[in-house]
Write a structure and sequence with these properties.
The protein is an alpha+beta fold. The protein has a single domain, classed as 3-Layer(aba) Sandwich (NADH Oxidase). It contains nine helices and six strands. The chain has a four-stranded antiparallel sheet. Strand 5 and strand 6 form a beta hairpin. The protein is globular and about 70 Å long. The structure holds flavin mononucleotide. Flavin mononucleotide binds next to strand 3. The site of flavin mononucleotide has 9 residues, from strand 3.
């Protein structure tokens, strides 16, 4: 009991190391060329494997790419698809008003993919203003097993965040890279190359490497209101 009291008093004034890593992790978009030692990536994968999942179904498959040629080819495919998307449905370019109905139709079909934020990023990738893997020497592709209990995407996200936090706790940088999905959706050679078929589907990916500089650090985040019910009252806290 005394130990618990001491712990509470300590936590009142200082954060745990885990909290520090969570609060200071930032997406890293500039990496050194040096490869990450193999054992560190294996430890990162282990952190992913230990993630909770609905029914402990562990509905994921991780593929590690540390071959710069494969990373380059995968990037080329995604960039080409971004260029195609941009040329077909970027209605924001002056003089292309006729693309608006086509864009609206596509946005209806894929509201999340063509949300203005990722759509803007697709244009940036197409123009070379945003990298895909940002020069990271290691990429971890995460595929979901669609037969997973409940929501495999969520489980893959939890496993991915475990891996990202483990990597940052080791002084590495990571960046989630969702846009590589385009390569798996529209260029069948990549599924074939990695032997991806039912029940696996691309979920997301993580770029991992040694960061240039010290990008980790706390930034202000918008606070969302939290309703807090206790002792028969409701408060709103931030
Ligand atoms: C599922 C997911 C996909 C993402 N995809 C990309 C991506 O393709 N490229 C990129 O540069 N950042 C990507 N991000 C990083 C977000 O832009 C970033 O997490 C967000 O802006 C907050 O910044 P922070 O990570 O530095 O805190 C992705 C993040 C998540 C969670």
């Amino acid at each position: 009991m005394e130990k618990q009291k001491e712990l509470i008093e300590r936590l009142r004034v200082e954060r745990t190391q885990t909290e520090e890593v969570i609060l200071k992790r930032r997406s890293v978009r500039n990496y050194k060329k040096d490869q990450v030692p193999e054992f560190m990536i294996k430890r990162i994968l282990e952190a992913g494997r230990f993630a909770p999942s609905a029914g402990n179904s562990q509905p994921w498959k991780f593929i590690v790419i540390r071959d710069s040629e494969i990373i380059r080819e995968l990037t080329d495919t995604a960039v080409k698809i971004c260029r195609l998307f941009k040329s077909l449905i970027d209605y924001r370019v002056p003089g292309r008003k006729w693309r608006l109905p086509l864009a609206k139709f596509n946005i209806r079909l894929k509201p999340r993919d063509l949300h203005p934020v990722p759509f803007g990023a697709v244009s940036m990738i197409a123009d070379g203003r945003l990298g895909l893997f940002h020069g990271a020497p290691t990429v971890i592709l995460i595929f979901k097993d669609v037969r997973g209990v409940s929501c495999p995407d969520l489980d893959c996200g939890i496993a991915g965040q475990n891996m990202a936090l483990a990597a940052h706790s080791m002084g590495l940088g990571t960046c989630w890279v969702g846009f590589v999905k385009l390569a798996f959706q529209y260029a069948f050679k990549w599924k074939k190359k990695f032997g991806i078929s039912y029940p696996y589907k691309f979920a997301t990916s993580l770029a991992v490497g040694w960061p240039v500089g010290t990008p980790d650090g706390m930034v202000k985040r918008p606070a969302h209101a939290v309703d807090w019910y206790e002792n028969g009252t409701r408060q709103v806290i931030f």
